[in-house]
Design a protein that fits this description.
The structure is a homodimer of 297-residue chains. Chain A has 297 residues and is of the alpha/beta class. Chain A is built from 15 helices and nine strands. The longest helix of chain A has 29 residues, at 173-201. Chains A and B meet through strand 9, helix 9, helix 10, helix 11 and helix 13 of A and strand 9, helix 9, helix 10, helix 11 and helix 12 of B.
């Protein structure tokens, strides 16, 4: 299959939550025919009103789509929609492209790719970073694992959702890259929380401290974007604590399988576990600051 | 004392290592008369050739300077040059300005400020970030603790060395701010090392991974500037491991005194301790990557 003509290409979305809905909207606006399925239909209503077509199951959606994009919650959800008896793999017509954009397990991505190949299907793992804002603005970073040829076929489609679409290697490599991303964030978040808590405890004005340090060697996206929210006590979710914990669990499991010691990641997982126990699961990841601003040594 | 006329103002530098020499050069080029003292005279020769005047002791330098700037190694060195019987505090004429730009203990900075006040001297703590390059280019970030009036008098002088000179609060606040800076870097460095090691272990191309992740939420100065050196095996010192360990020791002590728990900083200190034991003391801080790329869980 060569380049796809949007007008004659049906793209099915499984999962129309905050991320999936924004992404499906970009695809639809680029002229593709979009079908949608979501566990709770209410979250798909806006897209349906804009012209998307509803399917009652992921299987029926897969049977009528040339490209199936999945953006669901947890690896268990990914496994279910792909491997269920009447799921995506069983229902898709030969030649269909399957793109899992959920942040999920590299090992599961490899299994999906193998199963897809056996059935004459093309699978890519393509998790994203950039959050709800990146999804809304179509500026996601899309990290792709799979065959180069398959990515080239889908590049125009993926390009409607992201400004950066990079092939990272064979199946699973997109997920591995996303894990590297989350690992860098995990320990980095601890550093930012500790630095701000230290500044407060030393009776400094943290905003003035940021003025001195954000532009130098201590600078980071987290320091520039999340530290101000931490200081303002704004713990509303950009990225949910519960989802970050999911990602860290995958990363820890995957690192262990690769024989890599990740004490910083393990510490972050432990601290976020404490935050979740303290009722922070539905807050944004910047809420980790609560642990440091609240407690004493 | 109001604004200082460079031509009639003698500025003494105690400590003309890599950082101090570059900083003294900027001051000299701005037209100030510069005197220098350093433990080993050889490191001051270049400055002497450019017109600086040599003093045989920190005390004699202090006695002949309107402003004394110290840029030495460890808090013990700071304590010695200030508090020795014939040191800076004992030798400076009333009205002299004392500026410690060494990264040192906030508690020591407060003690120097108290002792200075008792003798009719003006003291500021003013550690910097930006490294040897920032010193060479005069683009340091200078974090100041002390009296606002004293800083305003010295602002033109400090402005020759840094592009950003920010008053952070009373005596000790400059050092506290520098500690916040180092604390943010410490855990962040672990995250970057773990992310890169994970990428390697997962058989990804780490440079391609950086392409996907450096511009997003995982982005940081460390990831953009030190990760490429880590991957190239370039562990030459920009900032020495031994100096970072010194800073982390101060930060841990200071955090404990403030009653703050800093598990990320403690982990970084432990890992850098292992690196130093493995012979990494004289390498740059990015050498932490060696621990992660070499070992298995």
């Amino acid at each position: 299959m060569g380049a796809m003509d949007p007008a004659s290409t049906v793209v099915g979305f499984v999962g129309t939550g905050v991320m999936g809905a924004s992404m499906a909207r970009h695809v639809m606006r680029a002229g593709y025919a979009v079908r949608v399925y979501n566990r709770s239909r209410s979250k798909a209503e806006a897209l349906l009103a804009e012209g998307a077509t509803w399917d009652d199951t992921a299987g029926s959606l897969a049977a009528s789509s040339a490209v199936v994009i999945t953006m669901v919650g947890y690896p268990a959800d990914v496994e279910a929609v792909y491997f269920a008896p009447e799921g995506i793999l069983a229902s898709a017509k030969p030649g269909t492209y399957l793109v899992d954009m959920t942040t999920s397990s590299p090992e599961l991505a490899s299994r999906i790719a193998r199963a897809a190949r056996e059935r004459g299907l093309h699978a890519l793992d393509a998790p994203v970073s950039g959050g709800d804002r990146g999804a809304r603005e179509g500026t996601l970073s899309i990290m792709v694992g799979g065959e180069a040829e398959d990515l080239e076929t889908l590049r125009p489609l993926l390009g409607t959702m992201g400004k950066q679409v990079v092939l990272q290697g064979p199946a699973g490599s997109g997920q591995h890259t996303k894990m590297a991303n989350q690992i860098a964030i995990a320990a980095g978040m601890i550093g930012v929380c500790e630095a701000l808590a230290y500044a407060q405890r030393a009776s400094l004005d943290p905003d003035t401290v940021l003025q001195s340090i954000a532009g130098g060697a201590a600078g980071s996206w987290t320091l520039s974007n999340l530290a101000p929210r931490m200081l303002a006590g704004d713990f509303r979710p950009g990225f949910y604590v519960k989802h970050f914990i999911k990602d860290m669990n995958i990363a820890l499991e995957s690192a262990a399988a690769l024989g890599l010691s990740t004490p910083g990641l393990a510490l972050a997982r432990e601290l976020y576990g404490q935050l979740a126990e303290a009722g922070g699961e539905e807050q944004g990841t910047q809420a980790l600051f609560r642990l440091f601003s609240d407690r004493r040594a």
